[in-house]
Amino acid sequence: MWILLTAFALVTTWLVQNLEKDLSTSPQMSDHISDYTLHHFQSVQMNEQGYLKSRLMAEKMVHYLQAKTELTTPAMVFYQQQQPVWVIQAERGEISNDDNEIWLLGQTHWQRYTPNQLKELEIITRDVRLQRDTQYAETASATQIINAYGETHSVGMRVFIPQEKIELLSQVRGNYVLH
Q1: What is Dmax (Cα atoms) for the chain?
Q2: Of the residues 76, 126, 154, 160, which has the maximum number of CB atoms within 10 A of its CB?
Q3: Over the stretch 6-18, which tens digit does the pLDDT of each residue have?
Q4: What separation in angstroms does the CA of 81 have from each of 43, 78, 114, 121?
Q5: What are the protein's GO molecular function terms (predicted)?
Q6: Is 69 left (phi over 0), alpha (psi -120 to 50) or beta?
Q7: Cα distance between residue 15 and residue 3, in whole Å
Q8: Across the strands, what pairs with 108?
Q9: Model pLDDT for residues 126-161, shown as the tens digit of each residue
Q10: How far is 111 from 78, CA to CA, in rounded Å?
Q11: Radius of gyration for the chain, computed over Cα atoms and rounded to the nearest angstrom
Q12: How many CA atoms lie within 13 A of 66 on its CB side?
């Protein structure tokens, strides 16, 4: 009888120790396992007056508990006076855990529209970091800006969307034609 109780106690101790090991390693593994996936994802942000401020869309969104959220073919639209002003598309993207920073990764294509929805400006670059609350974007990559008057090239760019201000950081050169 004592042998049976001792064996039972040893087996129970062994099971508890193995269970503790499994539980202690599962949070590390959960970083790499998604907790949900959305297809045709869309998120909107409103301004203080209740008007549309921005819209983030993606073909697919994969959310991870302790890591950044991944986006497939994201598009970001910024609005002013209820009209789309900037449309930014990328190959892929990531969102920070607090939803404030968005990384538009791979080739990133920007289009700026006038109030009557004519394309005014086009920007082609890569790997853009965007702060959603302040609508500030930056990249250290080569940038090409195209408008009706010509092209401008630079390395690195900062965009202050509400102020409609673009700063080109280095190696700036351009070709312009007067109409």
Answers
A1: 102
A2: 76
A3: 655 555 666 666 6
A4: 19, 10, 12, 19
A5: glycolipid transfer activity; lipopolysaccharide transmembrane transporter activity
A6: beta
A7: 18
A8: 90, 125
A9: 999 999 889 999 999 999 999 888 999 999 999 999
A10: 11
A11: 25
A12: 8
Record the pTM: 0.76
Q: Which residue has the tokens 């970001």?
A: 76
Distance of CA 41 to the CA centre of its chain: 13
Structure token pair of residue 86: 């900037």
Phi, psi of 67 (to 5 degrees): -130, 180
Q: Is there a contact between 89 and 73 (Cβ–Cβ < 8 Å)?
A: yes
Q: Residue written as tokens 């760019």?
A: 157
Q: How many CA atoms lie within 13 A of 23 on its CB side?
A: 6
Most confident segment among 7-11, 96-100, 123-127: 123-127
* Amino acid of residue 9: A
